[in-house]
Design a protein that fits this description.
Layout: H1 2-13, E1 26-27, H2 38-49, E2 62-73, E3 79-84, H3 90-104, E4 115-126
Parallel strand pairs: 1-4
Antiparallel strand pairs: 2-3, 2-4
């Protein structure tokens, strides 16, 4: 068990830390870019309607919620971490990180080294 823990620590220590400046992160290297479908938007709309997000209703009723997720991808094209940027709506933040993780499964290009990327999810609906 100790050997496993030491190997795990050595593996995670070798991964790059989360950068502070997300604007410099390259887009996540999806092989096939995912689509935000109506059922995915419905969850976010429900969270906003339930008041679990600190968002004001737009005057025209048209909501656009963007969530950036920093994604650590290893050299084998496997997503190792997904960290959502805070938008004052924890359920939507975690939901978005989960979607990026799901979208990435067997859908990322290999790279020369482990590095951080950015995925931006946009939920757009008329409320």
């Amino acid at each position: 068990m100790l050997a496993f823990l030491l190997l795990f620590q050595a593996t995670t220590d070798a991964l790059p830390p989360l950068p502070t400046d997300w604007s410099r992160l390259a887009p996540i290297p999806y092989v096939d870019a995912p689509t935000i479908t109506a059922p995915l938007v419905k969850f976010v709309a429900g969270e906003v309607a339930a008041g679990r997000c600190a968002m004001q209703r737009p005057s025209d009723g048209h909501y656009v919620v963007k969530v950036d997720v920093a994604a650590l991808v290893d050299q084998d094209g496997i997503l190792r971490r997904a960290v959502p940027r805070a938008i004052d709506c924890p359920t939507v933040e975690q939901y978005s990180a989960g979607l990026v993780t799901s979208f990435a499964r067997a859908n990322l290009s290999d790279g020369p080294t482990a590095m951080w990327y950015r995925a931006t999810l946009v939920y757009d609906w008329q409320g």
